[in-house]
UniProtKB/TrEMBL annotation:
<keyword id="KW-0813">Transport</keyword>
<protein>
    <recommendedName>
        <fullName>Probable electron transfer flavoprotein subunit beta</fullName>
    </recommendedName>
</protein>
<dbReference type="InterPro" id="IPR012255">
    <property type="entry name" value="ETF_b"/>
</dbReference>
<dbReference type="GO" id="GO:0009063">
    <property type="term" value="P:amino acid catabolic process"/>
</dbReference>
<dbReference type="InterPro" id="IPR000049">
    <property type="entry name" value="ET-Flavoprotein_bsu_CS"/>
</dbReference>
<comment type="function">
    <text>The electron transfer flavoprotein serves as a specific electron acceptor for several dehydrogenases, including five acyl-CoA dehydrogenases, glutaryl-CoA and sarcosine dehydrogenase. It transfers the electrons to the main mitochondrial respiratory chain via ETF-ubiquinone oxidoreductase (ETF dehydrogenase).</text>
</comment>
<dbReference type="GO" id="GO:0033539">
    <property type="term" value="P:fatty acid beta-oxidation using acyl-CoA dehydrogenase"/>
</dbReference>
<dbReference type="GO" id="GO:0009055">
    <property type="term" value="F:electron transfer activity"/>
</dbReference>
<dbReference type="GO" id="GO:0005759">
    <property type="term" value="C:mitochondrial matrix"/>
</dbReference>
<dbReference type="InterPro" id="IPR014730">
    <property type="entry name" value="ETF_a/b_N"/>
</dbReference>
<dbReference type="InterPro" id="IPR033948">
    <property type="entry name" value="ETF_beta_N"/>
</dbReference>
<comment type="similarity">
    <text>Belongs to the ETF beta-subunit/FixA family.</text>
</comment>
<keyword id="KW-0496">Mitochondrion</keyword>
<feature type="domain" description="Electron transfer flavoprotein alpha/beta-subunit N-terminal">
    <location>
        <begin position="27"/>
        <end position="224"/>
    </location>
</feature>
<comment type="subunit">
    <text>Heterodimer of an alpha and a beta subunit.</text>
</comment>
<dbReference type="Pfam" id="PF01012">
    <property type="entry name" value="ETF"/>
</dbReference>
<keyword id="KW-0249">Electron transport</keyword>
Amino acid sequence: MSTALKILVPVKRVIDYAVKPRVNSARTAIETQGVKHSMNPFDELSIEAAVRMRERGSPKVEDILALSAGPAKCVDVLRTAMAMGADRSIHVELPDSSAAGELEPLGVAKLLAKVVEKEDRNLVILGKQSIDDDSNQTGQMLAGLLGWGQATQASKIEFEEGGDKVSVTREVDGGVETLRSPLPMVITTDLRLNEPRYASLPNIMKAKKKKLEKKSLEDFGLEAGNRLKTVKVEEPPARKGGGKVEDVDGMISKLKELGAI
């Protein structure tokens, strides 16, 4: 008898991928005021993966829970997640300030571990990284805290007959490798996994009726507080224009002049 899946999909509100980030005037962080935000693209892949598991029908998906931790506007990405197919969502509201408005990867992993325990999850699917801090740490830390098997940067997810074991294909240098693990499991998603669907207008309207719980860190026995402090943020130096050479000998001379060879 196959195990019914209870899936947790964390989603993060980030500056939209099409927006060029700017350093704020104080040079302490990236400017977020008045900037378009959307769901982290890797998290869109995770929601799509969970919904496709339900559509395949085997193993049975009992529940897809989306979760986001952050300021009040995170509700927008949770509504999007539910419009894409998540059944319900939890918003862990954090103070809207630069000091405590965003958890570090370890803080997120500790929160997710508490949610997994409280909500009786047996599969967590999350983006391999968020496009704002690019840490690529939360999934690995979560698996370590839970003592679960993990497969990172998934480009294909398949359930074996019976539904208790998962095979995950991931790209590595020089090819691909396939990992196999029994449930429960943590999977992080990569861009080749799927193409996320657009949330249709009817589903957006239905999402407004789905359950969205408001929680705080205190509800999970956790406190806000980061170990790292950003001292300064600067734009990278502008690249200098290139030069032209007449022939191969000229290129070799130029490279020697620059100390490249």
